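Friendly challenge for the regulars: who can give me the structure tokens for this chain first? No prize, just bragging rights.
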Amino acid sequence: MTLPELPSVIHSLDGQQLDLSAPIWRLQASADGGQMQFIRWPLLRACALFSPEALRICQHYICDRLQRKKAHTVRGDFNTLLRFARWVIVQRKSPAETFTWADYTVELAREYLDWLLTHSSERGNSFSRLRVLYTWGVARQYPGFRPEVLRVLKTMTAPGNVKGHHVRSRHPTQGPLSPEEQWLITQALRAERGADHDRVVVMLHLELGCNPLASVRLRASDLHRFETSQGPLYQLDVPRVKKRTIYRETKRRAVSQQLGHLLDVLRQPDPDSPLLHWLTSHQPERAVNQALRRWVRDAQLISPRTGDLLQLHARRFRYTLATHLAEEGASKFHIAEILDHTDLQHVEVYVETTARIADYVARATDPIMEPLVQRFLGQLVDAGDAPTFSGLPHDALIPAAAPHLPLLSVGGIGVCGRNTRHDGLCQLLPPLSCYTCSLFGAFRDGPHREMLTAIDAYLDAAREQADPRILQQLDGVKQAIGQVLGQIEGTP
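First reply, four minutes later:
Bragging rights claimed.
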């Protein structure tokens, strides 16, 4: 079969015109802005792997994808080709002929997938992208693509990269911000530290948890001001990203008066100009994170978790907002709506890693079913010399001491399995919160009944004045302690 000629000019999915006669194909992440995406064919030619016919097939595939998929996705497809070519070259022990798609056998595909799963952070994603290309080639009956090979490829499982690792581990520089770090940021914003242009970027991502691409696509006309008796109110039409549509879609979000006023002052009169017009047009998303880092340096924010300058980037704000919503009991649907996710798979991590998830499950459960909720998530242990938790040099004793509780015992209630060197200090309220934590090792001979009595005494004295949310949390702690006592009494 003779391959058709490649067109000299095409229009991408969102209407951008591309010159395919150039050695490097260029387009923006979105038609209304975003970082430039480059398809660098000289890099693939430099590998000297693909035959001229195989390379032309690759170009036709990328050309077709550009008319069906967003720019960022297609750049990932091209990078997959580049990664595969470099892998084949390294794996070959002796010089070989150039690669044609007839050389992509089931054995080669299995070997490549095995290598990806053990050596690449992408894991099976690159294999899956190549399988899409192969499916495309079979459908068009291009040379070298065989239906019998495709049938086997479709039976091969290619697990993708692990999602939410930094959220699960509460990574000190890549995961959600701690409450102490959030407090430092809000205090610096109130003091108006740093340049206005940088401060407005911080406030925008702190309040909305925007994807950087959405931020750089904001236009001057997306900011709306409404006069009220309490002063002006502001709203933003935030562009949606990663949606399978060629049209510009937005979601309206309320912002604070402080942020709205600053955006109103800084925006240009042209309604179609970028709202954050001072960001470089070549790589505006990178400029967003540069502005965040620059503001941290100007404000001299030192993280209490690391002792160094706070590591700030837009995605951390996104993680922080979603984690906060989960801890406040928001549903997965609500979190997905705020983050503008179409499905729930990307928000599962925030709900499943919330330390107080049992509280919200029980609160939403019928009272008849409430006793079935397992509040105590830890384990029973005996005090001894050997560490209870593997990977920790020694046990961290949790004392039976809490503010405002009239405790008679001064012993310890158990040990903590948190690795503070890697995960940072506990952000909850030991020892009360320990009973609902999965990292808690409760001593069988600990003063748990004394803790329960002390909580009851506090509730009797302060129930009228205490915050209802605190009372609900203490009720959950009481149930967890009761479950600890039940397990102890049932232990032979």
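Residues 353 and 425 are 16 Å apart (CA to CA). The longest helix spans residues 468-489. Your move, everyone else.
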